[in-house]
Amino acid sequence: MSEYQLTAVGHIQSPYKQKFAIPRQPRLVPEAKAKLVFSSDFNREEFVRGLDEFSHIWLLFRFHETADKGYSAMVRPPRLGGNERKGVFATRATFRPNAIGMSAVKLEGIEYKNGQLSLLLSGIDLLDGTPILDIKPYLPYSDAMTDASAGFADTRPETDMSVEFSEEALAFIEKQTEQPELKAFITNVLKQDPRPAYKKQRESDQSYGMTLYDFNIRWHVQDNHNTVTSIEKC
User: Fold this and answer.
1) What pTM did the predictor assign?
2) CB 218 within 8 A of CB 159
3) Does the 10-151 domain belong in CATH 2.40.30.70?
4) Over the stretch 149-161, which tens digit does the pLDDT of each residue have?
């Protein structure tokens, strides 16, 4: 087998500080804002000249937190409840031979501030610190195949999860000014039901925590209802 050396062109500054709660596909949570910060070798505006003419881009990245764990020929897709095995190349699982992933995200803008080049993104599904290997413009006429079929993942994942906020959590959201879409962001993350498949099947009453941006968020799940109990600054 041939071996290739890849150099990251930059990394992602993401609101998702842990794998838990990251949407399983891009653009499921449009309020998820992020930055792609370019590495020193690529920190020049020439590299992105003309990119602002495109509304969406492809990101090729490395699953850096699981790359050292190797790969599996067969995996259990969360979409199937973790109960059925599929070949890794029939999924978007992280445990891949080269640990490479891809996401189509919205390009909100290009920023060059204090000598640092960055892309402003939304609808992101990447962990904070994810290395970006390449960037390509999204081409609707070529990339959007309207007659395509997608096997066991043919439709957008939907749940019947509902979300409410405690008075304490709402008071915090109203007081903070850093993230104006924080309530909608948390709501859409929880509507995706980030719990592992086995917990959905076995537990109907449980408390959880996650970090989004620099906020610690606690919530309680009972049956199909989420209650955000508290939000605190990290």
Assistant:
1) 0.89
2) no
3) yes
4) 988 888 777 778 9
